[in-house]
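Hey, can you fold this?
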Amino acid sequence: MQETKVDLGNGIQLHVEIGGEASDPTIILIMGLGAQMLFWPDFFCKSLIDQGFRVIRFDNRDIGLSSKVRHQGPRVNTFKLMGRFAFGLSNQGSAYDLYDMADDVALLIDRLGIDKAHIIGASMGGMIAQIVAAKYPEKIDKVGLLFTSNNQPFLPPPFPKQLFSLIGKPASNDEEGIVKHSLKVFNTIGSPGYLNQVEVMSTARKLYQRSYHPAGVLQQFLAILCTGSLLQIDKQIQKSTLVVHGSKDRLLPSSHGKAVSKAIAGAKFELIEGMGHDMPAHFIPQLSGLFAKHFK
């Protein structure tokens, strides 16, 4: 895949990778909270390319090699925001919200000269994808959503162990500390029985050496909390949508994905038995096949 930087013209530059034939239908991959674009496995991207798609993955703002955002506002009480968020209420105090991140995707489509694109959003990326599909329907063909939520009121909260493993602080911020922390996170949120420990550690080391910016993870988390429920957004989506979720996801239980599919007119829901909040190699043929069939 070819790497490039794309200036969106809004003060943000996104680091982008593009693979496949320019003449093939385009799929844009939108990754989740604190996750660099390499969390879209190469195997998954290649599988989609081999099935006749042009694939674009990128680092969201504040993560990886994309622009970092400085927040000049006062510190916020994260736990207070989480309490309001649980009731579907929006908050204030973040440097940006998911609507701003959706604008980034729309601008990326424009800057790359794409007429219409399919989109797949994972976790927080799925929340962003919902906003893009509702706000910019003229830019989107079909929608794929992977282990995500619309954060509507009274959905089952993430299991505390999984949530705090994701947003918790590592024991140290050096490379070894981050690698150990990453392994702990994936052992907690990943697909039981399908975790390749060596692969996770190797990927964590590669990501640390590529970019380490914990402030961006916190700001993206605040962006979610300050966006609130997407239930009304879902009701505006008129695009053919496939929602995929794992039966063993304890970060965002499958009821979140079911709520999204229920809220979007005509959406289809697919439950993957045994999958958690990750994309192990075992499930990639099934995942890529589902999305490729949906987009075709």
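Oh, and this one too while you're at it.
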Amino acid sequence: MNNNTIVVLGGAGLIGSLISRILKQYGYCVRVVDCGPAQFECEYHNIDVTQPFSNTDDVFRDAIAVVFALPENVAVRSIAWVTAYVSSEVVFIPTCSVQGPFYKALRAVAPHQQFVGINPMFSPKLSVQGRTVVICVENMDATQSFIEQNLLDAGMKIRRMTPTAHDELMALCQTLPHAAILAFGIALTKSSIDLDLVAEVMPPPMRTMMALLARILVNPPEIYWDIQLENEQASTQHKVLLKSLERLQQTVAAHDYESFKNDLQSVSNTLGKRLNSGAVDCQHLFSLLN
């Protein structure tokens, strides 16, 4: 019996390919399940996981783990299919940017299924060296899983947390900044000013925002849709962002410089020791962009 087979659902995608290559690097037999062919040598099954056919026992034969490198809603819908073919000892590894919905759905169907969520906090197109990967586990004191060790061996950093804590953190670190950048982009479309003229004169902050916006736009939209839609904490961050803009608008409309200054001081106090290092980082970015 082969005891090192890992099934990667969505293994032909960006995240799926990244995880698959790391697993192959450490000697695992990778079995990719996707609608499109994998870009590397592996066992491949052409299956649409949203409409899996019956008698797919071979897909999960001898598997010790199943990686769900899928959008959140697709990953959740595929749980029932996968649990019908594997034992509770098989580790379920979702790579979702929001882990809570998958975890809750899994526990509703399979209370004792092994679970280790992973969320790479970087683009799969970048080098993995020194990059942080968030690991979601039920028990923070649980023994280190094989996938954690493999990610560490590949040069990545690991940060453990529960699925709930992960989603709360992602709402702040991903939902909020992406929402601000997307709102900036939508506002940009409302302007009648020629962007060629903007490109000639735009100062570093505008250039930075344009670069952040472009970074989002060149990637598949479903990545950012999931971040805004699937996280239960997302609406909270949206409301906070709207209130912050309203606060700024009211302060300026009232010509209330003291309130403006106090708000900036409050933000500075929140940043604390990160204020100066952040200013240095920004200066470095501006230098690169110029």
